[in-house]
Amino acid sequence: MATRTTRTTQTTRTPRTTRTTTTAVPGRITFLRLAIALQTLAILFQAVTAGMLLTSPQGGVLHDAGSRVMYGASMLYVLAAVLAWRPGGGSPRPVLYASGFLALASVQVALGIAHVPSLHVPLGVVMFGLSMLSLGQVRGHATSRLRTSGSSHG
User: Fold this and answer.
1) How many of the other CB atoms lie within 10 Å of CB of 119?
2) Predicted pLDDT at 15
3) How many whole angstroms separate alpha carbon 42 and alpha carbon 129?
4) Which of 91, 92, 115, 127 lies most in the core, judged by the most C-beta atoms within 10 Å?
């Protein structure tokens, strides 16, 4: 029977104090990073296909398909954030970011269906920037956690 550890606990003893640090499992952080990267790539694909809308009839088909992938990637981001938080022992903050991003994605889809490019396009740019920022934060937290623990987990 195999057992699975969901948290890494490190205890440090000094003459006067005992300190226990709990960190998220590296695999959960990797899944979160992968989900955000997929979302970011899907939004970049949307920007490319939006440009294709201006020059070719296939742009509309690709943009429509990409919107479904982007929305699915946003839902995957929420799932990954919850898994990194609850069973993984991470911070709940990425869950808030992911949920907010899913709300923005919902507004974006509604604006696209309603053909309101004056709001749809700028919101897409904001979403790409926020997704890049989230990706950088998750990468930065994982890297700093590895440096402070002296661990070689990836």
Assistant:
1) 14
2) 52
3) 13
4) 127
